[in-house]
Every structure is written in structure tokens, then in C-alpha cells.
Amino acid sequence: MVKEIERHGFPVAHMCTVVPISLTVGANRIVPTIAIPYPLGDPSLSKAEEKELRRKLVVKALKALETEVDGQTVFED
Amino acid sequence: MPRIVHYINQFFAQIGGEEKADIKPEKRDGFVGPGQALNAALGGAGEIVGTVICGDSYFNENLEAVSKEVLEMIRSFKPDIVVVGPGFNAGRYGMACGAVAKIVDEELNIPVVGGLYEENPGLEIYKRHGYFVATGNSAASMRTAMPAMAEIVKKLIAGETPTEGYVLKGLRQNYFAPERGSKRAVNMLLKKIKGEEFVTEYPMPVFDRVDPQPAVKDMRKARVALVSSGGPVPKGNPDRIEASSASKFGKYSLVDIVDLDSTNGETAHGGYDPVYANEDLDRVLPIDVIKEMVAAGQIGSLHDFWYSTTGNGTSVANSKQFAKEIAEELLRDDVDCVILTST
Description:
The complex is a heterodimer of chains A (77) and B (343).
Chain A: H1 2-7, E1 12-16, H2 19-25, E2 29-32, H3 47-65, E3 73-74
Parallel strand pairs in A: 1-2, 2-3
Chain B: E1 3-9, E2 26-29, H1 35-42, E3 47-54, H2 56-61, H3 63-76, E4 81-88, H4 91-107, E5 112-117, H5 121-126, E6 131-135, H6 142-157, H7 181-194, E7 223-228, E8 232-234, E9 250-253, E10 265-267, H8 275-279, H9 287-295, E11 301-308, H10 316-332, E12 337-341
Parallel strand pairs in B: 1-3, 1-4, 4-5, 5-6, 7-11, 7-12
Antiparallel strand pairs in B: 2-3, 8-10, 9-11
Helix pairs in contact in B: 1-6, 3-4
């Protein structure tokens, strides 16, 4: 889906936990996330901490979208 | 009697479903679950001496460390052959089967036999590390998968190199050809010119890659859209998106939502433990944070809808079609960029 949407002209930030799958299917901007059942959260944290974690990940995805890449790029910390 | 070790997940070990997908690796003597059918199909040619089990989520979230742990458990049984799966079209299970094949192939130098569906990403990534039988996409094909895997195991036990019945590993093997390369190439060319059939010695791999689109210049002016393959849907799953092998995607308004919680959202996805997503769906689709950032001017604007489907077991053809339809809607609304979340 990432690839097909990108083919139509949109940069896509793929936020996912299993990065090797994202690399195999061909996503170009990859943002690694926390865990399979909660990519953008962490139930062991307080609600406020969890939201802060989520905000950091979203900011990273937006940065990825603002970054020129010339091939598959994983946006680590 | 040749010794076989079998790797399976928590589901096939009958420990539990998604709620047990986070269990750590463990080993048991003898066969467990589908190992019984494998033992039977081997007809005494070999025997499963031990089974190693791990939860699919736990494995994928700790890929390297768990691979090593599983390797030591496998090594402790002193196997001659390792069998993984079959994992059919289960994404995380396929990745685990593949990762086990890789580390066994590299560290123990013994053959690995497995079974995966052709679209399982684990197959594409790890096929060169084992003899993987092409199975159907669900456990309904266990009846044909296990005997096919057993056939390969029997060949290996007999000291033969299997030459068919598995997905090509993509490895080159040296051999002596009667004619030198330049002559073979010219012969091929002559056949081609004459319009005759010829067989290439080096088929080109098919890369379906899309070049990265240019970056967004200024996020404060950009229009962002949200898409997910993690199955986030309004409470009650109004479109009845299937829990796996989705035949459709949903389109849902986020105009009146500032925060997802257990009253307005849930996941339709059947491929992971839904407890956390059902408690707070922002964990899959970060609407709370995105809305705040739009309000604060950090994001220009937001497309009024989110699009969702379930990515587990969903065919590549369906996924492409969904994404095409979604992209066409985004084009009509002058969207600039997309955040796509996956579980």
C-alpha cells in the first residue's frame, strides 16, 4: 500500500515495528515504532508519558517527510 | 535415526492465540502439534527429537536476541535437520520461521526445511536459507504442506540434494558446461534473432520499486492524510472489515474526533492482540497528537478522512487496489503527504 500510494505522487512515511518487512515491500521513508500490538504507544507508561512518546514518533515521521531521500531510508533516533 | 528439531509458534503449540503471542522461547522433548503429522509422514525415516516454540510478537520484536536464544535451544537437541512451520501466510510467523532458518543455516550448517505461502514476506527475505515448500495461504492447506515438507526431509535423510518441490533459493551453483560462455551467449543470440526459443542462464530479478517522492517543503503548509493497515475503525466496525484477508478498506471521517479511546474506536485486525488498540486506538492511529499539531500550526491541515484495512493475510493484489483507490481520493483533495501506520 505504501508503494502504491507513493507511485501516485505522495511521499509516505511508513510507521511500523517490523522494519525488515517494510524494507522488503519497498517503503522509502521508514520510521520504526514500539511494538506490534501498539506501534504508537506503550501501555506500561502513564497516559501523559505515552502521549509524549507518540508525539516524538509523529514528529519523527513528519521530519522524514520533510527529508529528501534517494533510496530506502530508516529514520532511527 | 536422524534427529529433527521442529520450530513452531505459540498458536500451533496450542498454548494460545494472540493473547499469548508475547511468550518467550521454550523447548520441549519430542513433537508438539503439527509435528505429529510430520513424524507420521516420515514413516520412521527420521524422528522429531525436540520442538522449540516462541510467541510470534515476541520473536519479531526481539529478532536478533531471540534468534540466538532459539538457536541454542535447537543446538541442545543435536539435530541433523531443522524443520520450521509451516507458517502459511502468517506474517510474523513467516518472519520467525525465516529467521530461524537463517541462523541455523549460518551457525549450525545443517539443512532447514519449511513451508510458506508465496506472498509471505518471510519467504522473500529468507528463502536462500532453507528448502521452503510453497504452501496455501492458510492452515487449511496443512494436509498438503506437511507431506510435501516430509518429502524434502526424506530426500535429505537419504543423502540426496532436493532439486524440486521447493521455492528456488536464488543461489548460484557452479557446474562445468561443455561449451564456454562466449559461445553459449552467441548461440543464444542467434536463436533469438531467428525467433527460436532459448533459455537465459541468468534471469533478471524483478524489482518492483517506486522512487521516493520529493520531500514536503514546509510541513506548516502541508496537507497530511492518515492511512493504516492495522485495522483502526470506528467502534463497532461499521463496514465489517474482515479480521484477516481483507476484501475492502474503510473510509472514516475524523472531523469530529480529537482523541480516540475505547468508546469511539477499535481495531478490526485479527493478527495481533487487540487489547491495547481497543483501549486506546491512538496507539495505532495517532489522531490525538496529529490534531494537536494541526491546531498548533505545526501541520498545515489534515485530510478529513482516515483510511483503514487489515494487512494480515491480505493479498498483494487487493492491497494495491485499495491503495490506488485511496491515492485517487487523496489526489482530489490536494493532499501533500501520507503517514501510513502498520502493526
